[in-house]
Design goal:
The chain is an alpha/beta fold. The protein has helices at 20-27, 64-74, 93-99, 118-124, 143-154, 206-224; strands at residues 2-8, 31-37, 50-51, 61-62, 79-90, 104-108, 128-133, 191-192, 195-196. The strands form 3 sheets. A 5-stranded parallel beta sheet has the order 2-1-6-5-7, with helices on both faces. A two-stranded antiparallel sheet has the order 3-4. α3 links the parallel β5 (79-90) and β6 (104-108). The two termini are 41 Å apart. The structure holds (6-phenylpyridin-3-yl)methanamine (JAH). Residues 84-86, 110-111, 114, 133-135, 138-139, 141-142, 145 line the site of (6-phenylpyridin-3-yl)methanamine.
């Protein structure tokens, strides 16, 4: 049972985690998701979570005290704390597979320019803390990155995927066993708007199908992700 806690000033942003594959995983007791409103740890009338940056500069920074009060309530010895930030390590499928083996993950969602750095610094002395980026773009906050990461992690928890999709397909998350992208896929009808399904796929020759798919995967990787081929 993997327990996710998400801390945010926009709890409604995490509602999609109750749907579809992840909703079913929760209902089946394979994981839990609890969302916490950071403003519950403020004490002033305006529920202030931000302040201006020391040293000047644009925007606002999240104050450390509400974070400390919230995280102290949630953290235990087995917790991994993940902080989504464009300055983090790139999130990958293998990172997701590692997180899927953990008992407890807390996501700390920043807004504005981010969270006072002492929050990560403090918890790093107590537990594993990972600053993680889902790609080289800036969002309005960490919430959407959490949706991405929880979905990627959840489908790697044993029992979450049905026999249809399955963990074996995960070696196809990028490509075959190599670092290749998936090739093109087709279903009925055999002709659609004058476009035919490649004849090899309906030939019944499984060895030829496998070889053709590998060629297509290499070509698509060369086109879209030459970096994966070292090119
Ligand atoms: C933006 C806090 N790598 C995607 C990503 C993750 C987090 C944020 N932006 C982009 C972000 C503002 C405040 C986090």
């Amino acid at each position: 049972m993997l327990k996710f806690d998400v801390v945010t000033v926009f709890p409604e942003y995490l509602e999609p985690l109750k749907l579809s594959l992840m909703g079913k995983a929760i209902d089946d007791g394979l994981m839990s998701v609890d969302v916490h409103d950071l403003r519950d740890k403020t004490h002033d009338k305006h529920k202030t979570v931000d302040d201006s940056p020391y040293g000047g500069g644009p925007g606002m920074v999240m104050k450390p005290e509400p974070w400390g009060d919230m995280l102290d309530d949630l953290v235990n010895d087995e917790t991994v704390l993940i902080i989504p930030t464009p300055s983090g390590k790139q999130f990958t499928h293998s990172m997701a597979a590692n997180f899927a083996t953990k008992k407890h993950i807390i996501f700390a969602c920043g807004r504005y320019e981010g969270i006072d750095s002492r929050v990560a610094q403090h918890y790093k002395t107590r537990i594993r803390v990972e600053e993680v980026s889902i790609g080289d773009y800036v969002l309005a906050g960490g919430e959407v990155a959490v949706l991405v990461m929880v979905e990627a992690i959840a489908r790697l928890i044993p029992g979450v995927l049905g026999n249809q999709e399955s963990a074996v397909d995960d070696s196809f998350a990028l490509g075959s066993m190599e670092n290749l992208l998936e090739g093109q896929i087709y279903t009925r009808p055999p002709v659609w708007r004058d476009l035919e399904v490649p004849a090899i796929l309906t030939s019944g020759d499984h060895a030829k199908v496998a070889a053709w798919r590998h060629e297509q995967a290499v070509e698509r990787t060369r086109q879209n992700r030459p970096d994966l081929l070292g090119e």
